[in-house]
């Protein structure tokens, strides 16, 4: 059957399983020709009858058509009029039967099937229960309606999903909070600073020479030092043996082993380079393209070599700021691990080599960390659920083990993987669109901080940040911890800032009714973690452990400086120092940008517009202060005192306890007022809950007009 282009019609057939009558041809009206159909929402799907009626489907909604249209213009016009009448009737009916609570919404729009249920524009499957844990069962209780944020751009073929958990998305929300309501809202800046596909494809086809023996040894040593500092991906003894064989016999090795060495060359060149001259390519990208040839064919029976290569390529892809590619590769590596059964314990009778058994365990948990952390940065689901994992945790090598040097500190890897699990749990609980059960936002934030505090308390002594023998490993671990704490608490900070901004025309301080003490305590924990991250990153830059192209350290720097920018507007006792720290961190980030760091180039676009918005706020507030000074004859020293806000409101809740000059994030979570807060069964954050439910809004606040989402800034 073919479509008749002259009649602009389409063929309609009965569903399979029925006896089909004579095929008939009817006119089709496309939703692109009828944009008003796309405004229909909230209509319960109905089963089609056998009376010859049709259904028009729009955005998960089925609209009953009153009659079958004819081919002439009159029939089509009456058909459209009938649809419009039906739409108006359904909208009126929905308005009259509006539910009185969110629980009523769920009960009304839940279908009778046991396979899936529609909640607004989301489908909640039976396996997608509460966001707190992979193992929790689904609940019929109310859920927050978090509308997916898609961004249109003419340069791409499809709208781009922007997750609220992303640091760049939070920066956009922050700018929208402090923007002048009389002016157009700030728009999200599209990520364009990454290694382009075309350039990589060109390098894949080019002939890249194998490095000289001395150069290859140097690059592999650098790569092993930086990769093994945080993760267990490859065995050092095996890599060095393979490298020497490739040096003495250039024709040695299959494609898999040589691809692994190419990937290590790429990482080694990356971390041994301090800056990029304008005429040079990005360090290691040619080697990366060479190693990527292995992606053209996936093994039907993957081995550990396949997983190792995929993880190395995923790690390097992040440095290229190709976050989506890195996420896909980490997910592929996890699926390879599942195919191999790495997520399960293998009987010793089937694999007696203790070194290989330990490598399998550690390789799986590194894949787990990559999958969890990469997904959390994008707000995407991970590739495996915790209740599907049955493999033991990493263990310390046995004394006298042949290749014990291949396996580093097991306690570090265990702490790292547990933190990755906490990051995933936090993102799902606070930012997820799944059913959260009866838990309110404040309860979920409270639970996230309890989990993080327990993680700190369980850390071995040698991994504590205040240990005088601490090296790069604990620093990286605690920076990840700080970022998780910031993710858990920055929605609270943003709501407080929003309340503060709303009160700026008035010189009266915010009251306890507007911002309760519990909310301020949580926001202070967020700010302290950001300050601690800035201090750790600055120290790392001074001692040389902050590599110029390190993606994670660059991201932590940007995330923390955004929090300090928000803190500088809260009029607290340290707001001025936070503003200075923000400006210095921005200069730090610009140095990384000028050196060629892709992620820093992206983040500097956000920092530039953020600084411009902050300057407007500072100028506006200073103008209000000077005008008030002129009107009331205030002394110059009284000007700053007129700007009482959340920071000055802190005095209403009693003096803050004295903390050490260098407060760590762990100290911030064990600070007495926060400990008391976390011990409470229910937090007093109704000012947040009311804004969520009264406005029926997303995570941060309600409907930003779609025109502000769909254009480039």
From TrEMBL:
<dbReference type="GO" id="GO:0045944">
    <property type="term" value="P:positive regulation of transcription by RNA polymerase II"/>
</dbReference>
<feature type="region of interest" description="Disordered">
    <location>
        <begin position="117"/>
        <end position="141"/>
    </location>
</feature>
<keyword id="KW-0539">Nucleus</keyword>
<feature type="compositionally biased region" description="Polar residues">
    <location>
        <begin position="117"/>
        <end position="128"/>
    </location>
</feature>
<keyword id="KW-0804">Transcription</keyword>
<dbReference type="GO" id="GO:0008270">
    <property type="term" value="F:zinc ion binding"/>
</dbReference>
<dbReference type="InterPro" id="IPR051711">
    <property type="entry name" value="Stress_Response_Reg"/>
</dbReference>
<dbReference type="GO" id="GO:0005634">
    <property type="term" value="C:nucleus"/>
</dbReference>
<dbReference type="InterPro" id="IPR007219">
    <property type="entry name" value="XnlR_reg_dom"/>
</dbReference>
<feature type="domain" description="Xylanolytic transcriptional activator regulatory">
    <location>
        <begin position="326"/>
        <end position="400"/>
    </location>
</feature>
<dbReference type="GO" id="GO:0006351">
    <property type="term" value="P:DNA-templated transcription"/>
</dbReference>
<protein>
    <recommendedName>
        <fullName>Xylanolytic transcriptional activator regulatory domain-containing protein</fullName>
    </recommendedName>
</protein>
<dbReference type="GO" id="GO:0043565">
    <property type="term" value="F:sequence-specific DNA binding"/>
</dbReference>
<dbReference type="Pfam" id="PF04082">
    <property type="entry name" value="Fungal_trans"/>
</dbReference>
<feature type="region of interest" description="Disordered">
    <location>
        <begin position="1"/>
        <end position="23"/>
    </location>
</feature>
<keyword id="KW-0238">DNA-binding</keyword>
<keyword id="KW-0805">Transcription regulation</keyword>
């Amino acid at each position: 059957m073919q479509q008749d282009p002259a009649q602009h019609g389409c063929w309609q057939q009965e569903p399979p399983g029925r006896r089909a009558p004579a095929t008939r041809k009817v006119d089709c009206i496309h939703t692109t020709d009828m944009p008003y159909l796309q405004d229909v929402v909230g209509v319960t799907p109905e089963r089609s009858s056998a009376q010859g009626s049709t259904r028009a489907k729009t955005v998960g909604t089925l609209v009953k058509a009153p009659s079958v249209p004819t081919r002439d213009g009159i029939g089509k016009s009456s058909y459209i009029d009938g649809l419009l009448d039906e739409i108006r009737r359904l909208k009126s009916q929905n308005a009259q039967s509006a539910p009185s609570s969110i629980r009523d919404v769920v009960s009304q729009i839940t279908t009778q099937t046991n396979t899936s249920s529609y909640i607004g524009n989301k489908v909640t499957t039976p396996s997608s229960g509460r966001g707190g844990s992979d193992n929790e069962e689904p609940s019929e209780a109310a859920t927050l309606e978090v509308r997916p944020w898609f961004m249109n751009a003419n340069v791409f073929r499809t709208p781009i999903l922007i997750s609220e958990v992303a640091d760049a998305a939070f920066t956009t929300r922050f700018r929208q909070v402090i923007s002048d309501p009389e002016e157009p809202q700030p728009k999200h800046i599209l990520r364009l600073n990454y290694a382009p596909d075309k350039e990589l494809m060109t390098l894949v086809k080019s002939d890249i020479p194998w490095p000289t023996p001395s150069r290859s040894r140097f690059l592999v040593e650098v790569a092993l030092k930086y990769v093994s500092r945080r993760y267990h991906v490859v065995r050092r003894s095996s890599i060095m043996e393979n490298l020497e064989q490739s040096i003495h016999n250039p024709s040695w090795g299959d494609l898999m082993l040589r691809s692994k060495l190419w990937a290590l060359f790429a990482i080694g060149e990356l971390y041994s380079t301090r800056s990029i001259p304008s005429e040079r390519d990005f360090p290691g990208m040619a080697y990366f393209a060479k190693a990527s040839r292995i992606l053209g064919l996936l093994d039907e029976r993957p081995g550990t070599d396949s997983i190792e290569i995929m993880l190395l390529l995923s790690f390097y892809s992040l440095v290229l700021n190709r976050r989506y590619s890195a996420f896909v590769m980490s997910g592929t590596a996890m699926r390879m691990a599942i195919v191999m059964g790495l997520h399960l314990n293998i009987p010793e009778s089937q694999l007696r080599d203790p070194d290989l058994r330990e490598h399998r365990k550690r390789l799986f948990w590194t894949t787990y960390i990559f999958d969890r952390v990469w997904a959390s940065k994008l707000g995407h689901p991970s590739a495996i659920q915790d209740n599907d994992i049955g493999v033991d945790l990493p263990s310390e090598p046995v004394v006298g083990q042949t290749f014990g040097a291949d396996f580093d500190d097991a306690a570090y890897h265990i702490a790292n993987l547990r933190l990755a699990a906490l990051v995933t749990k936090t993102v799902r609980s606070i930012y997820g669109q799944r059913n959260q059960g009866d838990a309110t936002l404040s309860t979920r934030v409270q639970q996230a901080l309890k989990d993080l505090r327990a993680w700190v308390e369980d850390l071995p002594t040698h991994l504590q940040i205040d240990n005088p023998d601490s090296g790069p490993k604990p620093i990286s671990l605690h920076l990840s911890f700080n970022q998780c704490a910031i993710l858990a608490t920055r929605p609270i900070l943003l709501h407080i800032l929003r309340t503060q901004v709303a009160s700026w025309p008035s010189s009266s301080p915010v009251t306890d009714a507007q911002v309760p003490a519990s909310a301020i305590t949580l926001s202070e924990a967020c700010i302290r973690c950001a300050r601690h991250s800035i201090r750790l990153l600055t120290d790392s830059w001074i001692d040389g452990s902050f590599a110029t192209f390190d993606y994670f350290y660059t991201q932590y720097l940007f995330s923390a400086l955004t929090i300090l920018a928000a803190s500088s507007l809260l009029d607290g006792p340290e707001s001025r120092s936070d503003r200075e720290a923000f400006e210095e961190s921005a200069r730090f980030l610009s140095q990384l940008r000028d050196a060629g760091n892709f992620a820093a180039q992206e983040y500097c676009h956000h920092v530039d517009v953020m600084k411009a918005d902050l300057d407007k706020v500072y100028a506006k507030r200073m103008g209000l202060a000077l005008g008030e000074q002129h009107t009331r004859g205030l002394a110059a020293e009284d000007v700053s005192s007129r700007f009482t806000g959340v920071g000055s409101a802190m005095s209403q809740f009693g003096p803050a306890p004295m903390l050490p000059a260098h407060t760590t994030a762990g100290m911030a979570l064990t600070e007495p007022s926060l400990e008391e807060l976390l011990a409470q069964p229910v937090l007093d954050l109704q000012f947040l809950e009311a804004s969520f439910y009264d406005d029926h809004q997303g995570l941060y606040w309600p409907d930003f007009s779609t025109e502000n989402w769909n254009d480039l800034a």
